[in-house]
Queue: 2 jobs
Job 1
Amino acid sequence: MSRLKTLVRNEAGTPPLRGGHALCQGCGIPMVVRTIVDTIDTPVVVVSATGCLEVATTRFPTTAWNVPWLHVAFENAAAVVSGVEVAYRALAKRGGLPQDGPITFLVLAGDGGTYDIGLQALSGALERGHHFLFVCYDNEAYMNTGVQRSGATPFGANTTTSPAGVAALGKAQQRKDMTAIAVAHHIPYVAQAASSHWQDLSEKVERAAHADGPAFLNVLTNCPVGWGHEPRHAIEILNAGVDSCYWPLYEVVDGRYRLTYTPETIVPVEEWLRPQKRFAHLFTGEGAAVLREIQRHVDDEWEALAARCES
Amino acid sequence: MSRLKTLVRNEAGTPPLRGGHALCQGCGIPMVVRTIVDTIDTPVVVVSATGCLEVATTRFPTTAWNVPWLHVAFENAAAVVSGVEVAYRALAKRGGLPQDGPITFLVLAGDGGTYDIGLQALSGALERGHHFLFVCYDNEAYMNTGVQRSGATPFGANTTTSPAGVAALGKAQQRKDMTAIAVAHHIPYVAQAASSHWQDLSEKVERAAHADGPAFLNVLTNCPVGWGHEPRHAIEILNAGVDSCYWPLYEVVDGRYRLTYTPETIVPVEEWLRPQKRFAHLFTGEGAAVLREIQRHVDDEWEALAARCES
Amino acid sequence: MKEIRWHARAGQGAKTASQLYATARLHEGQSVQAFPEYGPERRGAPLRAYTRIDDKPIRRHDAIMHPDVVVVLEPSLLHEVDVTEGLAPDGIVLLNADTAPASLAGLDVRCVPAARIAGDSKFVNLVLVGALAAVLHDPVDAVADAAIELLGGKVAHDEIRTAVEKGYACLS
Amino acid sequence: MKEIRWHARAGQGAKTASQLYATARLHEGQSVQAFPEYGPERRGAPLRAYTRIDDKPIRRHDAIMHPDVVVVLEPSLLHEVDVTEGLAPDGIVLLNADTAPASLAGLDVRCVPAARIAGDSKFVNLVLVGALAAVLHDPVDAVADAAIELLGGKVAHDEIRTAVEKGYACLS
Amino acid sequence: MATEARILTGGQAVAEAMRQIDPDVVPMYPITPQTPIIQGFATFVAQGRAHGELVDVESEHSAMSAAIGAALAGARTITATSSQGLALMAEVVYIAASMRAPVVMAVGNRALSGPINIHCDHSDSMLVRDSGAIQLFAENAQEAYDLMLIAPRLAEHPDVLLPVLICQDGFTITHSAEPVVLLEDDVAREFVGEYRIPNSLLDVRYPTTQGPFAMPDYYFELRHQQLAAMQAALPVFEQMASEFYALSGRRYHSVEPYALDGADHAIVCLGSTGGTVKDVVDELRAEGEAVGLLELRSFRPLPRHDVRTALDSIRTVSVLDRADSPGGAPPLFAELAAALHGTEVDLRSFVYGLGGRDLHPEQIRAVFTEDSGAYIGLRGAPCPA
Amino acid sequence: MATEARILTGGQAVAEAMRQIDPDVVPMYPITPQTPIIQGFATFVAQGRAHGELVDVESEHSAMSAAIGAALAGARTITATSSQGLALMAEVVYIAASMRAPVVMAVGNRALSGPINIHCDHSDSMLVRDSGAIQLFAENAQEAYDLMLIAPRLAEHPDVLLPVLICQDGFTITHSAEPVVLLEDDVAREFVGEYRIPNSLLDVRYPTTQGPFAMPDYYFELRHQQLAAMQAALPVFEQMASEFYALSGRRYHSVEPYALDGADHAIVCLGSTGGTVKDVVDELRAEGEAVGLLELRSFRPLPRHDVRTALDSIRTVSVLDRADSPGGAPPLFAELAAALHGTEVDLRSFVYGLGGRDLHPEQIRAVFTEDSGAYIGLRGAPCPA
Amino acid sequence: MPELTAWRELPLGGVVRPGDTAPPHTGGWRTGLKPVVRLESCVNCLLCWLYCPDSAVQLDGTTFVGFDYDVCKGCELCAVVCPVDAIAMVEDDGD
Amino acid sequence: MPELTAWRELPLGGVVRPGDTAPPHTGGWRTGLKPVVRLESCVNCLLCWLYCPDSAVQLDGTTFVGFDYDVCKGCELCAVVCPVDAIAMVEDDGD
Ligand SMILES: Cc1ncc(C[n+]2csc(CCOP(=O)(O)OP(=O)(O)O)c2C)c(N)n1
Ligand SMILES: Cc1ncc(C[n+]2csc(CCOP(=O)(O)OP(=O)(O)O)c2C)c(N)n1
Ligand code: SF4
Ligand code: SF4
Ligand code: SF4
Ligand code: SF4
Ligand code: SF4
Ligand code: SF4
Ligand SMILES: [Mg+2]
Ligand SMILES: [Mg+2]
C-alpha cells in the first residue's frame, strides 16, 4: 500500500485535526500535524505549546482535536510531556492505565516555543531521556502574536520587531541552528524536514516514533501571513528553500548524519527569498550586500553539513 | 614574561576575589575565577549566577569582590549580562560612560546555572551575539544547595537527588554535552578546560576574550564536598579526568575543532572515578557493569571528538 | 452619540475604516473612539470594528451593543453572522451590495455597490466610509482629508479622494 | 526548660549531638527541639546548633538567646567567636579541653578532654553528649541508647556506648 | 507646547512616548496585547526616529533580567509586557525593585491563564502587587501617554529608584483609537531629562558589588528601604505630575475623586472602567442621586491616607475589582478594607470584567442602585460567599 | 495505629509522609530549605522503600509543568519548592488550579529575593495567593506531616480538584528536629486511598482537549468554578481532618482558636509563630490578661466566616504578617480587614520576621501590651506609614 | 456553538470533548473562489487530501469524492498540489 | 563586620563596595594544619599563589613572601601544587 494510503487508513475518517478551525486560509501547519499523526501507528497524545495552532483550534467550548490534546503554556510543552510520559510509565508499572498498549507522546510547538522560550524545558527533557517526539513547526517567527522575530527568523527578514527601514535591514542575526542544538544533545533521532516534502517528512516521523528515546523534528512550515505570500505559492517557496540548501533535509540517527534529499541542481537562495514579502526590502537599495551575505552563509552551512554527511 | 607573571602583574596586588570569603576549604572555584580575570587585559565586569561562588563571597555587608560584580538570580546571568553589554554599547555611542575604553563582560555560573536553569537565557544571548565571555565552572552538580544532580552530573554519580541504593545506581542518564550545545550555536569561540590545567585555561581565556562575539568556556572544577575527596587530591583527580579523556581539553574556533591537549597515555576512567566518594558505590556489587558502560561511553565520545578534530 | 459597527473579513480594512471615520470627525471637533474586536480567528475570518462619535468627550470604554449604523463591507457575511444584532431601533444598515437581500427586509438598508465602484482599487472600505458620511450628513471633504492623512503615505491622494467621493455620491 | 547551644565547625557533629541529646530526653518522656543555624559559610566554618528540653510540650519556635549550657566541641573556636554570648546568668560552659582558658574566668566552665578521650574514633561529639548528661544529671544509658539508635546503623554499638560513657564518667 | 490631537491607540500612544523618551535600552518580547508598543518602538528605531538598542530576548524572564542589567549599568531602560509575560518575569520584578533598578515597563493588562485568554483584566498586575514596583493605571490612551512620560522621572528620582509599571487595559485601551495630544518632541525630551543612578556598575574605577546575599541580620532592613521608597513615591509623583501639568495642562493625582463632594455612594476602581463610571455618575447626579467615583491612578503605592480622607465620610463605597483571589478577598477590595478600617463606611465588593467580560453602564448603575450581584455579568448565580 | 514519636525535622517528616503516600510521579528541583524533602524522598526510592518516578527537571517552572502533565494524565503527583522556585513557577501554579490538577506541593517558606536570603518568611506563599491553589500552614513538624497526608485527599476530592500547598516555615520547621508520631504505613496508605480524576488524558478512546482558549464569553465562568472549588474545600477539609482525627487523635480545623474565649486582645498569625504565641498567651493568661490567638491553618481558602465568628466580639485583633507589600497593606492584614469589615474590632497590623528575623516571646508580649512598633524587630524607626 | 451557559453547567476545568460542539462553518471565509474537481481526471493520489489545511477533502474509504464546502476556506492549495490539474478554482456561488 | 545598623544607614539597594568592611578572618577554619614555606627551596613559580582558593599567598611584587594566616583555611593545595615541595603543612598553633 502506498504511504499516503497508509496515512488515510490510519486516519480512518477521523482527522486528528478536523476542519472548521480558525487557522488562516492556506496555513501550512495542519498538513504537518496530519502527516505526523497519521503516520504514527499507535494512539497519540498531543501536547501543544501556545501559538497559532493552539489558539486557533481550541476556542472553548469547541475543539478541532480528535486525539487527546493538552496545552498548559507557551514555554513548557516539553516539561508537560515529560510529566505525561512519566505518568504513563508509572501507571503502566502498577496497572493503572485506562487501556493497555503503547502510546506515542507528541509535542507540537512553533519555533518560538522551541528555539526560544521553550528551549530550556526541551533541553531538560532531552537530557532526561523521555520517550517522546518533539516536533517544531518552524514558520520562522512568532506568528500568533503578529509576526515578531524569533531565534528561528532568518537573517535579514522583516518582522514587526526586526522591521526593515532606513536604519535597519531586518533581523541582524543569523538564525539559531536548532537542529544542531538538538543533535548536540546526543539523542537517538534528530531530523530536519519541510512541509513541501511530505513523504520525506512521513518517513522521518516513522523513524522518529520508533527511536529508543527522545526524537526531535524541525519542520519548515510556511505561513502566508508572516512570510507574505499567497497560499498557492507555498509549495514552490518551500521547494526553493530546500533546493537552495537554505533548508537541507537530513537526519541524524545516533549521531550519524544523512542527507535524505539532495537537490538535483542547487538553486540560488534568491529563489527562496524573492517570493516572500518579508524579504522584499532586500531587493532594493542596500539589500544586494545582504543577499550576497545570505548566499555565502547558506553555501558555508551547506558545505559543512555535506562534509558531516559524507564522513 | 611568563604567563603566570603576567597574571600577577594584571592582578597588581588586588585579587579580583580576595581571601576571607566563605567558600569551602579547598574549593576549586576561586582559582578559576582568578586565572580568568587575571588573564584578561581590560577591566572586567562580572555577572554571577546564584550558586556557591555567589552566596559565599557576598554576605552583606561584606564583599570579596574587587571588580564590579552583579548578581540578579540563578537562571538569568546571560540575560543580565546582555543588558549590561548593550547598555555599555548604548552609552559608548552617546558618550555616557563613566570612563572610556573596552570592558570585558564576564559571566561566572555553575553547571546548574548553565546546563539547566540558565540554558535558555544563555542560548538567547548567544543567538543575539552579545560580546561577552560566559564561563561555566562545572563542578557537576548543584553544590550550593547540597549536591543535587544537574544536567552536568555524570552517569552513575551518587548525589542527593540521584542517590545510590539497592534500587538505584546513581544518576541514570549521561551528562548533557553543554560544550557541544554551545558549539551548535555557531559562536566564534567555545572551549573546554579544567582547573588542573591552568595554562591551557589561561590561553583559552585570552582567545575567548578577543573573540568577535560571544565566547563560552566550560571549566571542570573540583568540589571536595560534592565529589567526596580531600582538597589535596584535587589536582590528581582532575588530571585523571583529563587523561582518561573523560574531559578532553579542546577548543572550537569559528567551528573548527582543535585538541589543546592530548594525553600521553590515556588512563582508564577508573582513575578518575575511584578517588571520588560519589562513585564509591560503583566499586561494589553491580557497579562493575556501570563502570564498563562509563568506559565505553568515554571511549566513544573521545573517538568522535578526535575525528572532529582531525577533519 | 453615534455608534457604528463595521463588519468585514480580517484584512478588508474595517479597522482602518473605523479609525478613518473617527479621524474625520475628530477634525470636525467631535470626540471619537474606534476599536476592533479580537479573537483567535485568523485571516479570512469575520471581524467587527466599532466607531463611537460624540459631541461631549467620550469617556466610556464599554463595548458597543446597540449601534446606530452597521456597515457591512463584505456581503457574503450576511450568510454567516447576524449583522443586525442589537441594531438600535431606527438603526441603519449600510451594505456593500446592489440591492438589499430579503433577509434584511423591514430594516432601513442603504446599498452601495462599493466593490464595483472601487473596482480594482480595493478601496471598498473608502467607498463605504464616503457613503457613511452621506448617511450621517457629514462633509465629505473631512472624510477624504482624513483618509489621505491616514493612507496618503502609501497611496495616491486623488485615488483616495475619488473613492471616498464616489461612495458619498451614492447616498447623498 | 533547658536550652543548650553547641559550638563546632561544620562537619564536627554538632547537629548530630544536638539531635541525639534531644532523642535521649524524648525517650525519657520530655519534650524536645533541636536545630542548627544556617548561613552561607561552608565546610570548616564555625557553626552553632541548639537543643531545647522541657517537661511541657515545646511549642515556641524562636531562637535560643540565653542558653543554660554551651557545649564547645572545638576549642579553637574560642579565638573566633564569643561562645559565652547570651549565656544565662548561672549558665555552664562545657568545653572540649584539659583546662579552662583564662578568657572564660569567672564562669562555670566544665572541661572534658574529649578529643583525647575519643582518640581516633572522631566521637568528640559523643563524649561531650555523655558529659552533658552528667552535667544535667541525666541517666547515661538513655543517652547511649539514643546515640546507638541514631548512629548504630553505621558504627559499632559498643564504640558508641563507650564514648558516651567515658564522657559521662568525666563529670559525674 | 502641545501638538494637535491625533487618533492613536493606547499602544501607539505609549510607543510615541517611548520615541520621545528615546531610552538607551529596550529589551522586548512579544505578547498580546502589549505587542503594538514594542513593535511601534522597533519601527521608530528602524526609521531612525529613535535610537535605543533593542534587545530581542527569548522570554520575559530575560526581558526583565536584561532590563535590570542595563538599568544598573547606567542606561535608561524601558520594556513592556502583559499577562503570562508578567507572570513569567514576576520573580525578577521583585529583584528589580530590591536592587533599585528604575526600569519603566508598559503593561497592557490581560487576564492570566488559565484558561488562556488575551483580553483585559487586572490579575497580572495584581500578581506583582507585593513586588515593590510602582503601578500607575491609565484610564485612556491620553493618560497612558502622559503617565509614560512621567514614569522615568518617577522611577529615577533619587528618593524612589523603583521600577514603574504604566498599566493600561488590554485591547480596551491598547487597541482602542482615541484622540491623543502629544507634547512636542523636544519638550517631552527635556521634561524627561537625563538618566542618573547612584551606582553605575560600569564604573570600573569604583567597583560595586550589587545583589549580595543577606542573612536574617540585614534582610528586614534592606527590604524596609523599599517601603520607604514607596512612601516617597507619593509626593514625588505629585510633584512630577504638577510639572507635567505646567507643560500639558493635564493634571494627575495619585487618587482622583470625581463628584465625590456630598456623595453617599462611591465607586472605587482602576483603569478604563473609570471613564464609563464617570458617565454613569453624571447621569445619576442629573437624576439627583448623590453618587461619585474615586479613581486610583496609583495602585502601588496605594495612597492610603488620601483614600481614607476622600472616602471616610461616605456611606457606601463599592469597590470594583477586575481580578479575584479564589478563596480570599479580591485584591482591591482587601486594600480598601485595610485603608478604611475603623471608619463607618459600608464597603462592598464587586468583581467584574474577568477575561475581558464587558461592563455596561447599566451594570454600573445597578451597583449604585444596589441592584447588582457581587460578580457583575457572571452567567449563573455566583457561588455563595 | 500510630508509631512511637521520633525526632524528625519538618522536612524529614514530610518526606516520610511522601514515602507513605508513595505518589506515582515526583518532579523535583532543589532549593533551600525544601531540599531535604525531595532528597528524603529520593533516598526512599533508591532504597526501594518508595516507588514513585522521579523527574529531575531543570527548573521549577518545569517542575510544576511536569506535575500538571502527570496529574492530568492520571498519576498522583507531588512536588516541593521554596521562594524563588515558587516565584519561577507562579505562572504555572495558576494554570494548575484552572486545569484542576490536584498536585500536592510541600513548601518550605522562604523570603523572596532580593536581597537573596534563604530564611523564612511568607512572601513566597503570598505571591501565589490569587492563584487558586489551596494553602495550609503547619505550626510544627508533626502538623507538616499530618497535613501532608491530608493533602492528597483534599486536592483530589471531586468537589475540590485544586493544587494543595502544605506550607512550613523554612528552617524553623523544615530543619528543626522535633518529636513526630507517624501513622503506620498501611494506615496512612489506606487513609490516602487511590488517585482518581474525572478526565484522564491517557484515555485515548475518549479523547479530551485540555487547556483550551477561552474568549470573554467564557473565561469569567470558568474562573468562577475555581472560586466554587475553593468554597467547597472548607467543608471537605473539615471532613478529611475529622477522618484523620479518628486515626491519629490529632484534630485540625481551618481556623484554630487558642484561648479566645473572653479574650479582648487576639493575635492572628500563620505558621510556626503560632506556637510561640501560645506560650505567651499562657503566660499572660496566668497573669490575668485576657489574650488569645487565632491561628489560620488554612490561608487559602481563607475561612472568612469562621474568622469573623471567632473574632468579631474581640476588642483588639493584632495581625502578624510575615510578609509585606511595599506601598500596600500587608497581605494577611488586608485579608483580615476584609473579613472583619463592618465589625467594631480594632484591627492592628504588625510585620515581623522578614528574611528569617527571629520573633521572641518578649516581642509578642509587647504586641499584646501595646508596646510594639508595627515592624517588629526592625532596626531603626520604621518609615512613617 | 451552543447557548452561552452558566458557570455551573460548564465542564470542569474547561475540558472539551470532540463532538461536544459542532465545528464552526469556516466555509464562509472563502473570498470568491472555491475548488471543484473533474473527477474523471482525478488519479486519486490523495495529495489534495493531505495538503488541505482544513480537512475539507472528503474521501470514501481511500477514494477522493469531493469537498466539504462547510469548512473549505478556498486557499487553492489542493489545486496547486494536484499532479493532474483535476482541481479548478471557480467563482464561489456562496453555497 | 561593623555594628548592625538601622535601615536608613544601609547603602541603597544593598550595594557594597570592597573595603567597606574588613574581610572575615577565615583563618580560624583551619583544622589542625597550616602551610609553611622553606623560602630557600622556593623557585617562585607562583603556582601556589594561583591555586590558593583563599588568596592567602602573599607576594611582594611578583615574589612569593609568605602566607596570610588570617584567611588561609589550611587546605593544603599550595603544598600539593608546589613543584619543589617548598611548602609543608605543620601543626597549627592557632595563631
Ligand atoms: C510567557 C508567554 N510569553 C508570551 C506569550 C505570547 N505568545 C503566545 S504565542 C506566541 C508566539 C508563538 O510563536 P511560535 O512558537 O513560533 O508559534 P506560531 O505562533 O508561529 O504558531 C507568543 C509570543 C505567552 N503566551 N506566554
Ligand atoms: C529559581 C531558583 N531555583 C532554585 C534556586 C536554588 N539554588 C540556588 S544555587 C543552586 C545550585 C547551583 O548549582 P550550580 O549552578 O551548579 O552552582 P554551584 O552551587 O555548584 O556553585 C540552587 C538549586 C534558586 N536560587 N533559584
Ligand atoms: S499566522 Fe501563519 S502560522 Fe498562524 S494561522 Fe496564519 S498562516 Fe498559520
Ligand atoms: S560545596 Fe563545593 S563548590 Fe561549593 S564552596 Fe564547597 S567546595 Fe566549593
Ligand atoms: S481550497 Fe484549500 S481549504 Fe478548500 S479544499 Fe482546497 S486545500 Fe482545502
Ligand atoms: S490531488 Fe488531484 S489527482 Fe490527487 S486525489 Fe486530489 S484531485 Fe485527485
Ligand atoms: S593551605 Fe590552602 S588556603 Fe592556605 S595558603 Fe595553602 S592553598 Fe591557600
Ligand atoms: S609553589 Fe612552591 S616554588 Fe612555587 S612559588 Fe609557591 S612555594 Fe615557591
Ligand atoms: Mg512560529
Ligand atoms: Mg555546580
Note: DSSP finds five helices and six strands in chain C.
Job 2
Amino acid sequence: MELTIHLYGITRDIIGSSKKSVQLPDGARVQDLLEQIRKEYPSLAELKSLLVAVNEEYAEGEVVLTGRDDVALIPPVSGG
Amino acid sequence: MELTIHLYGITRDIIGSSKKSVQLPDGARVQDLLEQIRKEYPSLAELKSLLVAVNEEYAEGEVVLTGRDDVALIPPVSGG
Amino acid sequence: MIEITDQPIQVQSCIDAVQSERAGAVDVFIGTVRNHNKNREVVRLEFEAFDGMAVRKMRELGEEASRRWPVEKIAIVHRKGTLEIGDIAVVIAVATPHRKDAFEACRWVIDTLKEVVPIWKKEIYENGEEWLEAHP
Amino acid sequence: MIEITDQPIQVQSCIDAVQSERAGAVDVFIGTVRNHNKNREVVRLEFEAFDGMAVRKMRELGEEASRRWPVEKIAIVHRKGTLEIGDIAVVIAVATPHRKDAFEACRWVIDTLKEVVPIWKKEIYENGEEWLEAHP
C-alpha cells in the first residue's frame, strides 16, 4: 500500500517536505513505517523522540496501518 | 491621653460608629486599650481574633501608645 | 501596580502593567463574587478596606514575593464597595521568566493577602447579612 | 473555548469565555515570547501546529482537567505562525468555585499541553534558528 505521511517541525526540515509518500507491504505496522523511514533519513535517529499519529491519535508500534489512515510523524513537541 | 480609634467591619457594627474616643492613662499599651474596650463591648470577645494596628502596622500587646498614634481595631480580615 | 479601588477592576490593565520582555509567563488570579457560599445564596457583597494600611500591606506582599521568586513585575488590585454576583473583587498578576515561579508567587500572594490585608467582606443574603470569618 | 489561531490572542476573550456565576476563582496562565532563552537572544518565534490533532488533544486536556478538578469552565487557546517578543503564545483560563482548584488545574493543563499537544516552536536568533526540544 501507499501511505502519505504528514510532516511537521524538524521532521519536515529533515525530510525536506510537508508530505511524503511511503510504500509499505499490506499489514505493515507503525514500527515498520518508522524503521523504513529511519533507514532513509538516518538523522531522524538524533531526535529526542519520534512518535507516529494515526488518525490524530498517538499510536503504539504494533498498530496495523491501512491505506486510508491519516498518518503523521510527531517529533518532540514544544508548544506552550 | 485621649486616643481616637478607627473601626472597620464587624467592630464598627458592634461599637456602632467608625471612630471612637478612648481615654487611657499615659504610657498605656496596646493590651491596655484592648482590655478597656473589651470591657465596654463584651461581644468583641466573640470574634475569632481582634488585633490592633498602630500607624498602619500590626502592633503587639506590649507596644506603648502615644496620643499622636493612628490606631485601628482589626477584626478577622476577609479580603480576596 | 498596587491599588484599592471603588471602580470595576480592568483585568487587561493589570496584565498590561506586568508586561515585560524578560518574562515568559504571567499567572493571573481573578477572584469573583460567587452566587453562593456554604450553601447560602448570596445576593451581593460589600467590601470595606482600611485603605492606607491595606495598600501598604499589599505593597509588602509584592516586595516579599519578589524576594522569594524571580518576579519581573507584579500587580495587586482589590476592589471595595458594593459588588454584584460575577463582579471581580481582586486581581493578582505576576510575570516571571518561567511559569513555575509565576504560579507559586501568585498563589502565595492571594493566600497571604487573605490572611493579612485589612479588608473585610460582608455577604448579603435574601434575609440577612454576615461579616465573613468574623466568628469562630 | 478550545482553539488554535494564527491571530493575536485576546486574553479578555478567554476570561469572558469562562465567566460563571458559580465560580469564585479564575486562574489565567499567559505564555509569552521572551527575549532570551538559555542565554541566547531570541529575535522571534515560529509556531507550527498539527491543527486537527492539536485541537483534539487540547479538548482532551480540558475534559481530563474537568474530571480531576471541579472546573466550571475552561479556555485553552494556542497561537501559531510568527510571534515577536512579548507576543502571547498560549492562554489557559480555568474557572472553579474555589481558588486552589483553579491554580492546580491551570498548572496541570499547561504542563501537560507542553508534553502531548502536537505544536512545535522554532526560535530564531540573530544568526541561526532551532526547533526546541528536538534533540537530547
Note: Residues 47 and 58 of chain B are 17 Å apart (CA to CA).
